[in-house]
Amino acid sequence: MKRSAVIALGVVGLVVFIIIAMIAGTYNSLVSLNEGVSGQWAQVENTYQRRADLVPNLVATVRGAATHERETLESVTEARAKVGRLDAGDAFEDPAALERYQAAQDELSTALSRLLVVAEAYPQLRASENFLALQSQLEGTENRIAVERKRFNDAARAFNTKRQSFPTVVIANMFGDRFETKTYFEAEVGAAEAPKVEF
């Protein structure tokens, strides 16, 4: 009788150990993936900050050559200020906050595009080494933004896939909002439509 009780107790202990090890392994995996998403979000913010830092120099360069383009210059300055006032924080945890963040960044992208179109009308500006260097840096930064947003979405997808799979979903739900599903960056409204080019 004692031997069967010891065996039963050993089996129960082994099962409890396996369950605890499974919960701990899943928790640690979620923490690692969550930190990956947070780290990639920091890279997205870093790249957007680089763009925001380039804007004043670009505006100042264009302002010197295109003094009567005041409205365009003001729209770029206002869009940059709006981006600067946003606290992105953990926007990837809140779909509404990410939408506001993305809308402000899209507004700045649109204003910068208009600024570069205006700059094309000024041959002396296009010939300026300073302007060309800033334009090149801005184009490079826009490419970096696209890359970092893709990497962020990849990190969020990896987290969300792990978080939603069984048995991880059960364990993640045990920890409340610590492991909420991450929000993705989405394309701008109308990006799926081909642009209309008129001559």
The largest sheet is:
none
Text of the CATH class:
Mainly Alpha
Q: Can you tell me the residue ranges where pLDDT is under 50 for at least 5 consecutive residues?
A: 194-199
Overall SS class: mainly alpha
The total of helices stands at 6
Helix-strand sequence: HHHHHH
N/C terminus separation? 95 Å
CATH topology grouping: de novo design (two linked rop proteins)
Number of strands: 0
Task: Domain count, please report it.
Answer: 1
Characterize the structure shown.
With 199 residues, the protein is mainly alpha-helical. The protein has one domain (2-179): LemA-like domain (de novo design (two linked rop proteins), Up-down Bundle). The protein contains six helices and no strands. The chain has helices at residues 2-65, 70-85, 95-120, 123-126, 129-164, 168-174. The longest helix has 64 residues, at 2-65. The model is unreliable at 194-199 (pLDDT under 50). One of its GO terms (cellular component) is membrane. Keywords: Membrane, Transmembrane, Transmembrane helix.
